[in-house]
């Protein structure tokens, strides 16, 4: 009855242009709108209005309604018409909302009245039925112009305005999904009370929307759940309801910003580059790291993963475990006529259980040896089945000679193991793609993005940087092959097509389980990032599709998050059920760093006095308290570094370090036990000098008693933390910079490390800058290397002088921006500017598009060009590919798809590594195209062009736009 809208409803299109709508997926914000009961003159009936079509003659009215619906959905078979007729009759007879609208229709004749539906249910207790239909008392007829509360639905007889329906309105579900809630039942509203499970009495706590919908999606024996029978409709319902749940949580965060600002901001938490500027606090809206899936949350997870790496080195195995919709546990629960894709609730539940058992199989049964630590994160792929990335660290590292026995990339021999042969040939064979099957989803630009088929090789080879090259024997050398039928053609598949797997895990779990050995992977940071990147939701950028909307507040993290997220049905149901998307063991405890009294306190007028007296307790303050204890625990704590405390003490609810009571007994301190838990001291931006040096002391000094005590070296008290660091020799020989950069290499991106290095150069004047560069140039350049690898889809590319040079230029640009000094000033060899002209920032920006992604846009959108657009598209692409040049003027009324066409042209050129500069006359127009800039910015046009007859562009031939303008 209402219209459903989202920033974007995503259709899945395979590489061959075929659409597979296996799941429902939306991007950005979602909204429901409702209009008036009757359409404006000369307009056709839409949505709710269809129920009020036709005259008094009920038979003709029915026929009209059925016509309107069938026309709208292009249905013309007699069966479809009969179904529509039956449903119309059902709704007219039983839907309470419709009955209510009809019974009030006569009151609306004058045009002065409206129907109002209250958003909340009449307080519970008065209605005993669980899913109340609105009773007439809840609905009021009001005079137009009367004040209405914001969440009320106000329906008029005829007007042009569409009203947004608040997602907390109890009729939201019934208006959007009349077929599921065919009686007009109430959905979630805010004042449903929780009940005591024992006595059944109402408590004063409200039921959250997550609990409400989780309850509604449950399978109960002996009772039918209509939602689970609705196939594609239930997919949409799940996404819709998850968005509702998320909106409720985000609204809470928006209204509690003051508290969050106090808790989230530095120095209690990591200095995130963007938020380091405390002056911005005033207008920023924070999405805290406690919000699962938020960028801060992802960042904390990556940092925690790197804590494992710092402690235990590289992970041993990287496992990708994908849900198999053919698992018997799933198929046995399907209702007649359903397949797995109709029941995301079942696939989610079964996958969660399987994942749990896979993890415990590895970690508790020690199949690959005792486990040191592990972590996983769940994601959703294109077809939207869940998969998990798992990292495992074992006590005994996997040796190169053992890899063959653990990981195989060969087809098993069916004569010795028929079961494994069946599992591997159904689950672990890539493609085929390439010339055998050009429409395979992995194919981009005629190449397989996963680089299959691999080469035959008789013995496993360990790569210098990357995964090992596993043994794949040809049939002549004893390898197996089998026949696979693809679109009626028999194809002989051999070992070149096998995705590396573990025979043991594959056999037990019968699914796609890719197992890789990470022992020789250099840039482990990127694997940790990849594992923790989260679903599409984390990969977001700010974009504003509505030209008339006010400019986005870049510091409003909540809105930016809502605009950028993607939600698919499976992910929605996973989150409604409250399943974890990350898990890890052991725990990583975050340790605060702040100056004395520098912890932020949250207070209101009422609590200010109390807060001033009772300073909030932090892990750092309490560490000092712990070291001050007069008992044996205090004495033991004095032997510990701050980051070691969580091994022996737990951070209790009462905000105190309490001795652990489980684990391995500690000999030195009876009654104390040691655990595997790790501590991570939050990083501090070196710009906050004193706090930075305090952190340096905390990671080097054991058992400090207070902020003063930590500044005491050999009995002498120093006034500043820096002086204490100097006295301890932590600052000699640039050691601290060396260790700081080494630590940053584990945690930060190349860009962040370069900034750090530039700050060190310009503000701290290290004695041997060149040595620091030589020691850390790899980590400062790894983002550049990574970019090359993604761009050319080639993981064998390694560091080159050109990349180091590019990195050096970026550092020099920063030094010039900070201190206006070239790097030669700091005793480093200069960057080679002339050789890198083509690599400078402007050029880079134009070259950093992901060709695979761009090609994806092209292959998805070219088939949907209309005839006229296609003619223009072909003509312009001909001019580009033939290098003939040209000047085209595209003139068409607004809304006919000019922007769409131009975006596609840009993507096509960029997908082939070409440079396409998008330039628009105004800033607003520039926001419509990817990578678009205004003409003033791109060509350095002078602003006073009208008054100055001699105005010229300030564009130089030497700068990159000169180059790229030529290349065009
Ligand atoms: Zn392929």
The secondary structure category is: alpha+beta
Shape: globular
Mean pLDDT: 77
Measured between the Cα atoms of the first and last residue, the distance is: 51 Å
Task: Please state the oligomeric state of the protein chains shown.
Answer: single chain
What is the percent of helical residues? 25-40%
Strand numbers in spatial order across the main sheet: 16-9-11-10-18
Query: What portion of the residues fall into strands of 2 or more residues?
Result: 5-15%
Unreliable spans are 14-21, 123-146, 264-282, 534-549, 954-968
Tally the helices: what do you get?
A: 33
**Distinct ligands:** zinc ion
Radius of gyration: 32 Å
Topology, number of strands: 28
Q: Note the main sheet.
A: 5 strands, antiparallel
Protein name: ATP-dependent DNA helicase
Organism: Araneus ventricosus (Orbweaver spider)
Catalytic activity: ATP + H2O = ADP + phosphate + H(+)
EC number: 5.6.2.3
Describe the protein's architecture and organization.
By secondary structure, this protein is of the alpha+beta class. Among the domains are: 31-193, no CATH class; 589-728, no CATH class; 734-833, no CATH class; 848-939, no CATH class. Helices cover 36% and strands 12% of the residues. The chain contains 33 helices and 28 strands. The strands form eleven sheets. The chain has a five-stranded antiparallel β-sheet with strand order 16-9-11-10-18, sandwiched between helices. Strands 1, 2, 6 and 17 form a four-stranded antiparallel β-sheet that branches. Strands 4-3-5 form a three-stranded antiparallel β-sheet, with helices on one face. Strand 7 and strand 8 form a beta hairpin. Helix 8 crosses helix 14 (524-531), helix 10 (344-363) crosses helix 16 and helix 28 crosses helix 30 (898-911). The protein is globular. The two termini are 51 Å apart. Residues 14-21, 123-146, 264-282, 534-549 and 954-968 have low confidence and may be disordered. The structure holds zinc ion. The site of zinc ion has 8 residues, from loops. Residues 430-431, 433, 440, 442, 448, 450, 452 line the site of zinc ion. Keywords: ATP-binding, DNA damage, DNA recombination, DNA repair, Helicase, Hydrolase, Nucleotide-binding. GO terms for molecular function: 5'-3' DNA helicase activity; ATP binding; ATP hydrolysis activity. Residues 212-391 form the Helitron helicase-like domain. InterPro entries: DNA_helicase_pif1-like_DEAD (IPR010285), Helitron_helicase-like (IPR025476), P-loop_NTPase (IPR027417). Its cofactor is Mg(2+).
